[in-house]
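Support request, priority: normal
Reporter: lab tech (M.K.)
Component: structure prediction queue

Hi team, I submitted a job for HTH lysR-type domain-containing protein from Acetobacter cibinongensis yesterday, and the status page still shows it as pending. I've pasted the exact input below so you can check whether something in the sequence is tripping the parser. The sequence length should be 300 residues. Please let me know if I need to resubmit or if it's stuck on your end.
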Amino acid sequence: MKNFRKNVPSLNALVTLEAVVRHRSFTMAAGELGVSQAAVSRQIAVLEQDLGIPLFIRGYRTIDPTPNCLVLVETLSKSFADIMQVVDCVRVSERKAKQTVTIRTSAAFATLWLLPRLGTLHALFPTTQIRLASQDSRAALNMDGTDVAVWFGLPPFEKGNVVGTRKDTVYPVCSPSFLSRVPDPDAFLSAPAHLIEHDNTNREWDSWRQWFIDAGIKAKKTESDLSLSHYADVLAAAKAGQGVALGWHVLVRQSLEDGSLTRLGSREVKCSGCYNVITSLQDTSHGVGEAIALWILQNL
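Reply from support: The job had stalled in the queue. We restarted it manually and it finished. Here are the results:
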């Protein structure tokens, strides 16, 4: 490639030659290239002078490529097609490199489930920028500008396609130090104290009162002693030994594994709602959003 520019004629002239041979017309080639017929004639003349051979047999209103010209143009056509394919691949790669996928979910799911797995997600989709939009009110769930949503509750969801669902179970959790002060978990749940609750307007998240009913426990008390607006804060308070919280298995699994939380007793309740993995009806992510949605569903 060192002497490429010295040995190879003008690229503009070669492009012009390919167009003339393909159309068998100087006029049509000029129209495709957006130049005058005279400019096309000049490019061909310069090319013939550079190569030292005639490229066309010129008749009355006709031009016929010479055998040498056909050999040259056959190679040019293949080379130009290869160049176009590579350029298209580079352009697609660049679009993917700038691809942003917006995932909308609750603050609890974003903090406790999604953020710890972002490293894995980035490794699987290295050219995708992940944008997290978190909220807690179902009434505000809006798929506009959202590629993927993970939402706890019951379908349907406006402007969204539910890819799949995942059921969950709820059970009491506390810190190991708090559990050490509870000799009999079943007796404790019959007369509970230090209950921590998530103050959420979404009633599809069970309250302590509803959990006791569903668990079949006639507790002497069902009101919480501490109410917090964010579920991550509820778990943080439980980890600090402030009391007992309701643990959604999907969200507390990692805390159970690392030992910062432990179950209090063996009672559990299956949730009436479920985690819904939703994709937008208007896919603007070229399929990347759906692939991420399927990955989330498989790992819930």
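The chain has a mean pLDDT of 86. Residues 136 and 215 are 25 Å apart (CA to CA). Let us know if anything else looks off. Ticket resolved.
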